[in-house]
Fold Trp biosynthesis-associated membrane protein.
Amino acid sequence: MAEQPPAKRPLWITVALLPLAACALWGSSALAWGGREKARPGTDVPIAVDVPGSEVAPALVPVALLALAAVAGVLAVSGTPRRALGVVLAAAAVYPVWAGVGADALTWGSATAVAGGALLALAGVVVALTGHRMPRMGSRYSAPANSRTAGESGKPGKARPDLWQSLSDGDDPTDARS
């Protein structure tokens, strides 16, 4: 069976969805999620006070940070670990959707949490299903021992590999005595 070429579109979709999900989740933590009645200080008169999403669902910001970190994770790993990351993202999306749907009243804050959770779930499903076909970082991002060195590339103006090795050894490659 011939190997399929990497699918770039799912990677770009994921890289676009994850920051959008993070922004929506972070925003929903700052928006009001409805009011709670509290007694006015010094009286027994109840007043309605807006409650931010960070008090109703305190894990919204950590899930938003997970979505941001997942951008780097999706780009850095490949194969089974990338697909596992997709499953983790889809599972993490349950919390903001559950918190938004379970809110006392549908407000902009809870609706934004549901939207952010849906974006995160969609990104997770895309990664879980197509992560093995997405392109991965090439050898130029690998450690120098695993990739072609600059001197082997044959491009003019590039340093010889032994110069890099002498730098790694702590020697000055420009010193005429070495």
